[in-house]
Write a structure and sequence with these properties.
Length: 131
């Protein structure tokens, strides 16, 4: 059989929330709880501004900065925008590197392009990297 419950307990009710100790934690908790509830139509505009301000302060206290997230993406986009310079390499140089270094022709072509189509620079770089 079930035990009788006190009169002040209602079935399905959530237990009371624990109030944070300091003001900063209370602000963060208020911001997080406001995210859980959907905004009412009667007071949504001013409440959103206050909630966003509290949320931004909470995020700053956690060490999350929105501007720092954008900077690496902007740097990566700038790198992608730089076009690769097309360089014509001599077929004899490609054959020489492929034969002497025992690498494939596409790899020899990339090696030459990385070293301004200079076979001596490319071969020297390959040998020093292998050692």
């Amino acid at each position: 059989m079930a035990e009788p419950q006190p009169a002040n307990v209602t079935e399905g009710a959530d237990p009371p929330d624990v109030i944070p100790a300091n003001a900063e934690d209370r602000k963060a908790a208020a911001a997080m709880s406001s995210l859980d509830t959907r905004g009412d139509a009667d007071a949504s505009a001013p409440k959103k501004e206050v909630d966003l301000k509290a949320l931004n302060e909470a995020m700053k206290s956690l060490g999350v900065d929105q501007e720092s997230k954008k900077k690496p993406a902007a740097a990566a986009a700038a790198k992608k925008e730089e076009p690769k310079k097309l360089m014509k390499v001599d077929a004899a140089d490609v054959a020489l590197l492929a034969d002497q270094l025992d690498i494939s022709k596409p790899k020899a072509t990339d090696l030459l392009r990385a070293h301004d189509a200079n076979a001596v620079k490319a071969m020297t770089a390959w040998v020093t990297a292998a050692v």
